[in-house]
Design goal:
Length: about 80
């Protein structure tokens, strides 16, 4: 996230992860919820956010390059 960008919506309260951080982890190659947590230097706590993270993972266009994922999310 660049300086001045809005922080995004919190998806994981336990780890204070925003949708922007999760999308960044996915764009960097995270393919499973475990990978997303690892990319954000944390792990699942209560588990209530895993369904939302999984939904974000599944919405990634199949075979999309990293830059294409962020463009698709922005649209």
């Amino acid at each position: 996230m660049r300086s001045g960008d809005p922080p995004g919506m919190y998806v994981c309260i336990c780890n204070a992860l925003t949708d922007s951080q999760i999308q960044s982890a996915i764009a960097s190659g995270a393919g499973r919820t475990h990978d997303v947590y690892a990319a954000c230097n944390c792990r699942a706590q209560c588990g209530s956010c895993t369904a939302s993270i999984l939904c974000m993972l599944r919405s990634r266009p199949a075979g999309a390059a990293d830059g294409e994922v962020m463009a698709a999310v922005a649209n």
